[in-house]
Structures are given as structure tokens and as C-alpha cells.
Amino acid sequence: MKHIPSNVKDKYEILGIIGEGSYGVVLKARKKDTNTTVAIKHFKQSPGYCTDMDIIERELKILQSLRFVNVVELIEWFRDKKQCFLVFEYVEWNMLQVLQEHPDGLPLEQVRQLSYQLFSAIHWCHTHEIIHRDIKPENLLISKNFVLKLCDFGFARFCNTQTSADYYTDYVATRWYRSPELLIG
């Protein structure tokens, strides 16, 4: 990774790429002073960077207000003129990977535990007037101790009775995970 600023490289050793998306790339890294493994979300530079910064700042504000065991923890963040890096706790798998590893399904007790944790995360968000808007297997992280953590709040919004409908974009969730009401109106 050649475009990582020195303030990030001074604190973290980049170990590899976890995944890529339209927003940028998620890196696996090691914090040098504690030897802790973290995930760093590096946003791609784009011509509409000011708009992108609005989205990033909204995600930051949401994450900072949602400290909860079943929401991925934002550790810190870095920004310079053209780049932004969000540093998160590292979680080993996502739900898609877990399901692919268990094609015959998970034991019922694990399904119950994971369902409860997902519902707890969603309830916590709603209690704080936040709607996630992109819940899908890739955004459900699963730790080695089978703790579920909701992640990727890029499409999330603060929501209350005073919020104007114009505040919300038409894009809500990845098409395959949209509710019938969203798909057919």
C-alpha cells in the first residue's frame, strides 16, 4: 500500500487486504506498540471527495455514538487532505464465511445465540435513533468466540420523528437483501 500516510504507518504495520468494495479497501494491520490486530478501512480517493467526506463524517458520528458489545468498535481514525482511515477492532470472520464453512447449517443453539446478538445490535441502534439500512451476511462479523458484531454503517442514518424524508437516499440496502416493500414499492 503505497498511499498510506506516515501517521498511520508509524502506528500500524499493514499485514494484508481483508476485502475491497466500492468505498475502498479494508486492511488487516498490527498496532506496533501493543501487537494488537486491527482492521483499517481506507476510503478510496474520488473526484467528489467533499461529498465522500460528508458520508465518512456521518459514519464516524454514528460509530462514536454506538459503543456496544454487538457493534464493531471504532478505535481511532486518521484523515489528511485526500484520504481517510478508520481503525476498527479485528474480527475474524463474517457471516457469509461462516455459512460457507457450514453448508448444512449451524447447530440450533448457535443460530439462537447469533440471532439474539443480531437483534440486540439492531435494538441498540434503534434505541439510539439509528437505522443501519444495509444488514447482510458480509456486515455481520463473527469473532472466534462466536460474538456477532454489526459493521459497515456507511448507509446508516440518524432517524427520529423530526427527520425529513428528503434526508434519506433511495439506495437503502444491497439488492439481494432488500425487503419486498423496497423492491416493489
UniProtKB/TrEMBL annotation:
Start and end residues of each Protein kinase domain: 12-185
SUPFAM superfamilies cross-referenced by the UniProt entry: Protein kinase-like (PK-like) (SSF56112)
UniProt GO molecular function: ATP binding; cyclin-dependent protein serine/threonine kinase activity
Enzyme's top EC category: transferase
GO cellular component term of the entry, any: nucleus
Ribosomal protein in keyword set: no
Keywords, sorted A to Z: ATP-binding, Kinase, Nucleotide-binding, Serine/threonine-protein kinase, Transferase
Catalytic activity field: L-threonyl-[protein] + ATP = O-phospho-L-threonyl-[protein] + ADP + H(+); L-seryl-[protein] + ATP = O-phospho-L-seryl-[protein] + ADP + H(+)
Record-given protein name: cyclin-dependent kinase
Enzyme Commission identifier(s): 2.7.11.22
InterPro entries for this protein: CDK, Kinase-like_dom_sf, Prot_kinase_dom, Protein_kinase_ATP_BS, Ser/Thr_kinase_AS
Origin superkingdom: Eukaryota
Stored Pfam families: Pkinase (PF00069)
Residues that hold ATP according to the record: K41
Sequence similarity: Belongs to the protein kinase superfamily. CMGC Ser/Thr protein kinase family. CDC2/CDKX subfamily.
Keyword Membrane part of the UniProt annotation: no
